Amino acid sequence: MLEAGWTTRDKTKQVKVRGVAVGGGAPVSVQTMLYKRPDDVEGNVRQALEAEAAGCDIVRVAVPDQEAVRLIPAIREAVSIPLVADVHFDYRLALEAVAAGADKIRINPGNIGDDSRVKQVALACAGANVPIRIGVNGGSVERHILAKYGSPSPEALVESALYHVELLHKFDFDQIVISIKSSDVKTMVQAYRLMACKVEYPLHLGVTEAGTLRMGLIRSSAGIGALLLDDIGDTLRVTLTDECAEEVRAGKDLLRGLGLLPGLQIISCPTCGRTTIDLFSLTKKVEGLLEGSTKPVKVAIMGCAVNGPGEARDADVGIAAGGGEALLFKKGEVVGKYPEDQILDALMEAIEAI
């Protein structure tokens, strides 16, 4: 359960990442991170373009050394979405990334050196109107905090993040986004719920090291979805051991599935012994024909001509098939009857007409 006084996404402080608003009731944004080697400028640019085409709102790139700084202007010139520079340990790389045009910096203030170095990064970001994402995970919690809690528990993750927040507050910097990821879904959910009770900064959600496509989707949907349903979370990344574009599509689909992103939704019957049509193939055909559509329409594909319209009465348009014929319905009302081999065309025409 959440403590009293937790901050919902409409009440978090809003920060701007170039043209993308994060927090303060802005739409939940979807992020990904490029994985090409830093010396492969062309490969990173190509991945950034693919992510943008898939609907990415914010893209992140690792900046592990001075040479990698050249990625920032190359990527920014190629895409219109904001670019985050991911920096660890060397505060000079953060300064160089800001000077090169990064739209946000991801750091742990506690691992870039003493207060004078944190101050330089905070002043540079403030001067360029660049937010800082404080990124904490189970492997980055400070030793003294681990010793206190005995493990990277939700409380340890939160205390670590708050420690970094205070480092930035010393220099009057408050354009902050916080992430406190864990590879353990329950720990991740509990940590973000606790953090939502402690601060009003926007939160970046994610289950870190979530896995390959199948399990990564399941684990990310469980963790991120639980928090979004609590009205916690302003931006997210579905971390997958897969292509960047797959992460983006997964994030967008998650938001659509929760009703947080307008767009086309397909609901379909799982089938049972009463089903007489090849609903699996029909559903896949519809999904393929509608791939990429952003029209805010709910489409139902049901396998029972008797119960279908009733079970999916909130769908804008749908079909229910069986016994060689199929019904076309809108908002639960039957508007036509067709032979099964004609229903797909009828459905697509109905969708186009909306």
What does this entry show, briefly?
This protein is of the alpha/beta class.
Give a description of the structure.
The protein has 354 residues and is an alpha/beta fold. It has 2 domains: 15-257, TIM Barrel, CATH 3.20.20.20; 265-353, Sulfite Reductase Hemoprotein, domain 1, CATH 3.30.413.10. Helix content is 38%, strand content 19%. The protein contains 12 helices and 15 strands. It has an 8-stranded parallel sheet. Helix 1 runs parallel beside helix 9 (244-257), helix 6 packs across helix 7 (185-196) and helix 8 (213-229) runs parallel beside helix 9. It starts with 14 loop residues before the first strand and ends with a helix. The model has no long low-confidence stretch (mean pLDDT 90).
CATH architecture of the largest domain: Alpha-Beta Barrel
CATH class group of the largest domain: Alpha Beta
Number of helices: 12
Question: What is the count of β-strands?
Answer: 15
CATH superfamily of the largest domain: Dihydropteroate synthase-like
Overall shape: elongated
Work out the oligomeric state of the chains in this entry: single chain
Q: How many separate structural domains?
A: 2
Major β-sheet strand ordering: 8-7-6-5-4-3-10-9
Provide the low-confidence segments as ranges: none
CA distance, first residue to last residue: 42 Å
Supply Rg.
23 Å
Mean pLDDT, all residues: 90
- What profile does the largest beta sheet have? 8 strands, parallel
**CATH fold group of the largest domain:** TIM Barrel
Helix content: 25-40%
